[in-house]
Structures are given as structure tokens and as C-alpha cells.
Specification:
mainly beta
Length: 52
């Protein structure tokens, strides 16, 4: 599962993975700083995303 959230924790985008590698089009996301949460099985990783 891939989830993009704003700094307030609101989910802007959420999708299940369909391939091992996928491109994500950020053109519809306003410029700013976001959190990306990737969940696979029992592992969750969160990182920052800068859209400019």
C-alpha cells in the first residue's frame, strides 16, 4: 500500500501496489512537503516527499 499524506495527516493519495516498480505522477499534487507511507506485509516505512 502506498499513501501520500499532507503535514496534517490527511490522506491525499492511496493505492495498492500492482507492480514491483511503479512511477507516481505528482503533477496533480500541489507544491509542498508530504509524507509517503509504504506498507508491505508487516513492514511500514514513512519518508518525506518534496514536490516542487
Amino acid at each position: 500500500m502506498l499513501e501520500i499524506m499532507n503535514l496534517d495527516g490527511e490522506t491525499l493519495f492511496k493505492r495498492k501496489f500492482t507492480k514491483k516498480f511503479e512511477e507516481l505522477d505528482t503533477a496533480r499534487i500541489p507544491h509542498g512537503v508530504y509524507f509517503v507511507k509504504i506498507q508491505r506485509n508487516d513492514c511500514i516505512e514513512t519518508m518525506k516527499l518534496f514536490v516542487s
